[in-house]
Automatic annotation (TrEMBL):
This is S-adenosylmethionine:tRNA ribosyltransferase-isomerase. Pathway: tRNA modification; tRNA-queuosine biosynthesis. NCBIfam families: PRK00147.1, queA. Transfers and isomerizes the ribose moiety from AdoMet to the 7-aminomethyl group of 7-deazaguanine (preQ1-tRNA) to give epoxyqueuosine (oQ-tRNA). Its EC number is 2.4.99.17. Belongs to the QueA family. Keywords: Cytoplasm, Queuosine biosynthesis, S-adenosyl-L-methionine, Transferase. GO terms for molecular function: S-adenosylmethionine:tRNA ribosyltransferase-isomerase activity. Monomer. Its main location: cytoplasm. Pfam families: Queuosine_synth (PF02547). The gene is queA. It comes from Sphingomonas metalli. GO terms for biological process: tRNA queuosine(34) biosynthetic process.
Amino acid sequence: MKVDLFDFVLPPDRIALHPAQPRDTARMLVVDAAGLHDRTVRDLPASLRPGDCLVFNDTRVIPAQLSGTRGAARIAATLHKREGARRWRAFVRGAKRLRNGDAIDFGAGVSAISTARGEDGSWALDFAGDEPVELLLERAGTMPLPPYIAQKRGISARDADDYQTMFANEPGAVAAPTAALHFTPELMAALADAGIAHETLTLHVGAGTFLPVKAEDTADHRMHAEWGRIDGATADRLNAVRAGGGRVIAVGTTSLRLLESATGADGTIRPFEGDTAIFITPGYRFRAVDGLMTNFHLPRSTLMMLVSALMGIDRIKAAYAHAIAQEYRFYSYGDASLLIP
């Protein structure tokens, strides 16, 4: 399938540089069988049914952006996947200056050795010392905001809170599961009062989520693997929701991708722990989810392909055209959509 099918033109001023305050006041475009409906996130309890279940990703974003030197050369690294207790795979700006075995000084007493360059150009970085790498990153790292935000306004101290969901519990992500940024304790209480349950799983989102699709055809694109986990008790409860007539609504494409990775051809969600590189494009048959709450995605991105697979390319193009015309805010800090096939 041609990647051009998933392209659209977005005015640059529609890219949100800060989240809505309070978070649940963001706008929400509901796309369902009845058409398009302009609402806000606070309308979510009335937009779902009693017995439905929202599934959140409880990953926690780590300060995975590092800046350092190798001799006189400047090196910038974005960690994207843990490969061991002290080893992280990283995308490196200035990678042509690196050789196997080079020492990189990131300041604040944090250093790493570059090893094992990957086919995708990434490097494995082995961090020196005995302290947990998470503590080293707290000292030397910054929040890994998406480039379309960081390049426009830089990173502020406030992003340490703004770019973390209320569910963040399991450290390891280098990008936030941004659909869940819209949720507040007040909204969760309103959902519970409306008879809508929730569950959590863990998928450590990698920096590959920001990478553009460079191939001309989806068949030639290679997804980066991300680590995720669904425990047996959670899988059992989600299966019971569907058996009782409720719907499983993924909050974010990361939750959806892990749910689909854990679900067999019979529609049963099973315990899962490991890597997934699932790539969902039109023609995919969904097995685990009945809907998706998500933000508005980049043109030509794998996430644009995913929502097109869920709703159909024509419906998504119509929804995005409506969102642009109605001045919705796009991308990680932007507004939401609720997609019910």
